[in-house]
């Protein structure tokens, strides 16, 4: 799905992504976690070939035209500039599959409907995107990425600003994609949702990948103290992992 090898991004002389390597296999929901400024967004953009980098990404090394069929991206910025209906905006996700000037086919319309339903937006088709709340706009932009129907979705803080039900529903939508054999790389600050819904966590700190594994193995007291500066309660229950941040360490 994605292979990164020694991916490095420099800002001036300083590496903000520093020789990061990992692979994403089919059926994974990978939470990309780390403190503010750790390099998560920069890593995602470099992997997609949106910014200059050294090292290799199996997606950025492909021709531009092919990339839109390999990976969809939901950026962190939520600004929707055009006052177009929600359905029109989500249909833009189908552009990599359409030949120039072609109208959306039955398959395209089905993908748009599935994405709208997955994000609980069935009733919003005809609403103007610019007249939605911040959380609703975030769901529309994620629906556009899901409608692209790519093997890999890369989403930059997709649940920030969503209410609890829509946060869980969004993570469930990712899990459903993984069950179909697709994969998701999602940056996320809510470690509780990350622990419960991700199959694997990758931790970045100051540009470096410092941990990569199953949530229970990654979210150790040492890592939480050294990287996030917190203590937390973490336990395994019949209902999945429960993680609760407790205190800021001195
Ligand atoms: N255009 C830029 N020019 C210079 N430095 C930048 C630029 N964009 C990001 N940086 C720096 O690169 C580092 C990594 O930023 P990045 O946005 O990738 O972090 P992040 O882990 O996504 O953070 P957050 O959790 O706050 O979204 C930060 O120190 C940031 O200040």
From TrEMBL:
Spans traversing the lipid bilayer: none
PROSITE patterns: ABC_TRANSPORTER_1, ABC_TRANSPORTER_2
Pfam family, one: ABC_tran
Any one Gene Ontology molecular-function term assigned to this protein's record: ATP hydrolysis activity
Keyword ATP-binding part of the UniProt annotation: yes
Record key words, sorted: ATP-binding, Nucleotide-binding, Translocase, Transport
Sequence ranges assigned to domain ABC transporter in this UniProt record: 2-231
Function: Part of the ABC transporter complex HmuTUV involved in hemin import. Responsible for energy coupling to the transport system.
Identification of the protein by name: ABC transporter
Organism for this UniProt entry: Marivivens niveibacter
